[in-house]
Amino acid sequence: MFDTLSWRWVALVTTLLLSGCSSLDYYSHLASGQLQLLKAREPIAELLARPTVEPSLKQRLALAQRARDFASANLGLPDNQSYRLYADIQRPYVVWNVFATEEFSLAPKLHCFPIAGCVAYRGYYSQSRARGAAALLKQQGLDTYLAGIEAYSTLGWFDDPILNSMLRWNDERLVAVIFHELAHQKLYVMDDTAFNESFASFVEREGLRQWRAKQGLPPNDALGDAQREQFVALVLASRARLQQLYDSDLTPAQMRSGKQAEFARLRAEYRTLQAREWNGAGLYDNWINAPLNNAKLLPFGLYDRWVPAFAAVFAQVGHDWPRFYQRVAVLGQLPSAQRHKALAKLSADTQNLPRQ
User: Fold this and answer.
1) Which positions ≥6 away from 219 have C-beta within 8 Å?
2) Cα–Cα distance between 336 and 224 in angstroms, integer?
3) Residue from 152, 122, 125, 147 nearest 137 by CA
4) Residue 75, CB half-sphere, CA atoms under 13 Å: how many?
5) What pLDDT was estimated at residue 223?
6) Among the four 55, 219, 233, 285, which has the fewest Cβ within 10 Å?
7) What pLDDT digit, counting tens, does each position of 82-104 carry?
8) What is the superkingdom listed in this entry's lineage (predicted)?
9) Per mean pLDDT, which range of 186-200, 215-229, 271-285, 336-350 is the poorest?
10) What are the E-state strand segments in 45-202?
C-alpha cells in the first residue's frame, strides 16, 4: 500500500534534504529506508480477514486495533490511518539511533532536519551503518551510545504502520508504544527533544493506566513502576553530579578521573538499591553492567526529564485530555528558556500531587 501523494512527498523532502550541506549518502539512506517501510504496509483489516495469516499474529494485530480505537476515543489522540496498517520489515528494530556527546558534556550532539528540526540523535535503518557512524564519532573523541528503536513517528506525514519490531514486546508494551507514537502526531515542538519525548512518555503512561482500567485489568504493576522510578531517579542524580563536575574548573585529567568515579558510584548505588529494596531483582543489570558514558545517559534526560511537569498539568486541568493538550500546546509555543523554566516549576509542583 503506497499512495501517489506519499511518493510525491518523499521526492519533495528528499530534494530538500539533498540540497543541504549534509551527507548525500546519509539522506539517500533515509529516503530508501522510509520508502521500503511504506511499501511493506498492508491494511490490518485485510490481514485479520486473511485465512493464511498466523493466529498469533492476528491476535496481536487485533489487540493493536482495540488500542488504536481507544487512543482516539478516550485519549483524544489523532484519528487517522496510522497503526491501522502492518509492515513486516524483517528485522528486530526499525532504526538504530546514535547518541553522542562531548567527553565532558551532557549536551547531545544535535542533528537538524527541515521537517523535524534539531534532534538529539541520528537514526539509521541499518545497524551496521549505525555502528560505523558511532565508531567515527568515537574516533573524534565523543562519547557514543547506540540504541535499537522498535517504532518511530513521521509526525502525521505518513500513515505509520504497526511494525513486526513492535510485536517483540508484551501486550502492555505494544499498547504503550501506540499511545506514545500517536502523541508525537498530536503535538511536536521543533528543536526540543526532551519536551517531545517527555510529553509522549506521559501520554503513554497515563494512557496505559486508563487502558488497563477500561479493560478491567489489574492496575499497573506498582512494584515495577516504583522500581523504574527509583532507577530513573538514580540515573538522573548521577547526571546532576556529572553536570556539576563538568561545570567545574578542574583539569581534563581530573574531570576524566571524576567521571569514572561517578560511574563507579552509580553502579554501587544501583547494587545497594537492588539488595535493600528489590530483593536482588536485576531488572536493569544489563544496562548498568555494560560500559557507561555521557551519551548512554542521554535518553534519561530526554524521555523522563519533564514527565512530572506534564503530570502536574494533567492534574491541574482535572484529568481532562482536551484541556491538557491545549495547556501543553501553550507551553510548546513559549520561547525555549521560558518554556523550560515553566516546566521546572511544574515538576516541582508534582511533589504535592497524590499518587494514583
Assistant:
1) 209, 212, 213
2) 34
3) 122
4) 32
5) 62
6) 55
7) 999 999 999 999 999 999 999 99
8) Bacteria
9) 215-229
10) 85-87, 95-101, 111-113, 117-119, 122-124, 143-149, 162-163
